[in-house]
């Protein structure tokens, strides 16, 4: 049974039973508690809590959908037979219209009669005593790792399954068959799961039916840790989720999800030199996920959903680079993804997918080769060296872990993420300590200050000068180059190449860009490298200056690769742009033929003098 037929059967089955078909919502949710849409119920969350009226919005208390979904928790598992980042979640939902008996009967009929599959076994909730387990000793059963909320055993569901002829009904605890909110608070309740066999004879969970009867005051993790409460919902509801990919695996009798027709046309199954099955699966998953994220408006960045997209793009790109085979080129895979899914998801834009991918590729390839060379130099890759490779060259954690082999055996994702978070929060602990690390000279020729307070202002203006040069290039074009600069505690003076006087609009745009980058509170980093490597990275430098073989490059942004501004420089600089405060362009004038000069001050009130 092809996946297109499974889709049609599922929607038709529930439509005939009074459910209104609701289109998939975006992967970028309205719900601020989650980064991406992780389940079909997210767009219906307000109907369970009573904040919205299903009858008013849908004309029914029951809906059915096939929802685009994305789970970042499975990224490290991708490459095995069944884990994915992006997937399609088929689900039926009831907001007070029906409950356990109808939900279980619907599921039984669809699996056994419509799909013709045998149910291996089902699970039901075994209940949770009110006494949580002792966290210090680890004593107690799984079901006791709860919030202390006394939740009874689900004997009703067990009886319904047995009445339908399912003999193998297994009782499990909170960790397995009690659904809780993944982000923060929300509807939740005990579940019952359906298992069927795939082509390898393995029992696979295909459908999870959640009986929403509680409102959880925290996340699922907080509930299990005893830090959240359960309150009865005024209206009980049904929330189900069945992965299309897993159901297709069982229906098509394949051993893995990657052998189903949902992936069949992406890459040839025939061996490609240098491509292991694991790498093939990673690229198949990531290419599909990339296509859907981009088509829902996500762009690569170092924050939020953009950070997830960038990790996927770069990981796939590294494999494309290492394999270097025409059959393994990602644009070919993206085209196949579009051909497979566009009929169901017309928002998929092949042109947009390819444009954003090629743009990211162009930026990343500048440092990829050098980053892979640096990786080879480490005898042991710990969290500090891994973060250096990410920060300086944009090499994702996943790639460092995989290509580092035994050298990364002690490298853990949680440690890397902690390092990343700490880096984002870094601010100067003290002025003297910060500048001591730079080997500060109070009169560098470019930067002049007589005492600590003057130094503070001069440092803020020094970083402002870097932002100013890039903002000028943003507004006036890449023909703008530094012709000289002078920084004091009162102002920065920047000379640049440009043939005419700037308009007031251009000056306003430049000033707005600089202040915007200050408000974004971007980190300022430094990396030392050879002059040739620094030039290849795109770092700007003063053409009149003679530089040594090793140079420092200061960059404004999370990494050198993705920095807004990057320049050859000896420092010092602020730790984060927010430390600058606010700046104003106080003067713009000509100083020589083809050379203009700008003065910028640290004040809100300075008047501009042309």
Structure description:
The protein is α+β, with helices and mostly antiparallel strands. The chain has three domains: 3-259, BirA Bifunctional Protein, domain 2 (2-Layer Sandwich); 277-425, no CATH class; 434-601, 2-Layer Sandwich (Threonyl-tRNA Synthetase, Chain A, domain 2). It is 37% helix and 19% strand. The strands form three sheets. Strands 1, 2, 3, 4, 5, 6, 7, 8 and 9 form a nine-stranded mixed β-sheet that branches. Strands 10-11-16-15 form a four-stranded antiparallel β-sheet, covered by helices on one side. Helix 9 (277-295) crosses helix 12 (350-377) and helix 13 (383-393) packs across helix 15. Residues 130-147, 426-438 and 605-610 have low confidence and may be disordered. Residues 129-156 are annotated as: Disordered.
Oligomer classification: single chain
Count of discrete alpha- or pi-helical segments spanning 4 or more residues: 19
The overall pLDDT, averaged over residues, is 85
Rg, please?
29 Å
Enter the CATH topology name of the largest domain.
BirA Bifunctional Protein, domain 2
Number of strands: 16
Question: In CATH, what is the homologous superfamily of the largest domain?
Answer: Bira Bifunctional Protein, Domain 2
Shape: elongated
Weakly predicted, low-confidence segments: 130-147, 426-438, 605-610
Distance between the termini: 74 Å
Family: Belongs to the class-II aminoacyl-tRNA synthetase family.
Pfam families: tRNA-synt_2c, tRNA_SAD
Domain Alanyl-transfer RNA synthetases family profile: 1-606
Keywords: Aminoacyl-tRNA synthetase, ATP-binding, Ligase, Nucleotide-binding, Protein biosynthesis, RNA-binding, tRNA-binding
